[in-house]
Amino acid sequence: xxxxxxxxxxxxxxxxxxxxxxxxxxxxxxxxxxxxxxxxxxxxxxxxxxxxxxxxxxxxxxxxxxxxxxxxxxxxxxxxxxxxxxxxxxxxxxxxxxxxxxxxxxxxxxxxxxxxxxxxxxxxxxxxxxxxxxxxxxxxxxxxxxxxxxxxxxxxxxxxxxxxxxxxxxxxxxxxxxxxxxxxxxxxxxxxxxxxxxxxxxxxxxxxxxxxxxxxxxxxxxxxxxxxxxxxxxxxxxxxxxxxxxxxxxxxxxxxxxxxxxxxxxxxxxxxxxxxxxxxxxxxxxxxxxxxxxxxxxxxxxxxxxxxxxxxxxxxxxxxxxxxxxxxxxxxxxxxxxxxxxxxxxxxxxxxxxxxxxxxxxxxxxxxxxxxxxxxxxxxxxxxxxxxxxxxxxxxxxxxxxxxxxxxxxxxxxxxxxxxxxxxxxxxxxxxxxx
Length: 435
Prior knowledge:
Elements: E1 2-3, E2 12-16, H1 20-31, E3 35-39, E4 51-54, E5 57-60, E6 65-67, H2 73-80, E7 84-87, E8 93-96, H3 108-120, H4 129-141, H5 149-167, E9 189-193, H6 197-204, E10 209-210, E11 215-220, E12 225-229, E13 234-237, E14 239-242, H7 246-251, E15 255-257, H8 262-270, E16 272-273, E17 277-282, E18 293-296, E19 304-306, H9 315-319, E20 323-328, H10 330-337, H11 341-356, E21 364-367, E22 381-382, H12 391-396, E23 402-404, H13 417-432
Parallel strand pairs: 1-13, 2-3, 2-14, 3-10, 8-18, 11-15, 14-23
Antiparallel strand pairs: 4-5, 6-9, 7-9, 11-12, 12-13, 16-22, 17-20, 17-21, 18-19
Helix pairs in contact: 1-6, 1-13, 3-4
């Protein structure tokens, strides 16, 4: 048994998880005189911030963007650490029909659908985005000669991409009332270049982090907290900050004594982890439009590609080779995961060749896999049909000597790195206020 009492005049805290939220909680507590130890299940610091070295190229498997740079603490750290970011607004965009013919797509009808969702927010009964779309088609598009079945189908594919690649859940799961109830910082989405890891490296500096230490039990005995690892080691401290992912909480792999209060349990069971998938496509040379977004109106799995070259003035230094990024969520992500890398390469080649002909080459493929990571079990949280954004506050609320942090505990900015950062800061301040 390890008892952290290095300084009898200061309190001790165990932080579980070395992602952004856990690191910020630990950093703030240590700055305020607490003896802090961070226990991390994985073999690296950073949580869902991780870059893989793929054929000599660093590819971000987790966070790639900051969402709003004004007032964003993550943006501030990136700048301070010598990183940079560039606006990612999906402009310009290149649109192609299923035959590969370029055309000028007007988004007025999609904007009308979004306006329809705003009206749904006033309803007393929630519904899924899928149900909202089906009703919209029936009432607004079905009898219109302008919108043929093939065009409506193409628009639906766009809706799938817009929601599932953003929220990460399936259209049948996402709440039409709650999907955009979170806050938004000014400054637009910014693609981070030269390494998101700069953030977690900065936050971890000077902290005592023990890796490869998964937890199986947390017990609050009213005068202290005992944390037991999977390996059987016991740690005793005055407080514990739990910053594991929502996916881990939902898995019940960690036993809490006493058990969660009922409202916290309901919130954990109800909110969902996204089934989000990033597929990096690496080419030997670029042959596509100089557009951020290249979209095909087709029923194919690969219909939308983000082009990071268009947002980076010095892409060769950032990526070394031409790259496109495909993103999927929900059932689409499940279908893509069933494919081999060769099958993905071939499918992407066939789609792109429709537009670019003989210039097209096959890519090599590298994918994220957070759904398979037993210490994450998903990418980030979202509110499903029937849920409520207030449930994030229920998960965040401490009980006894057990405190909580993570993007899933910060409803206003859930599913963001700045939300995770602020959740860690909040958990630390909650402990500090007790002493």
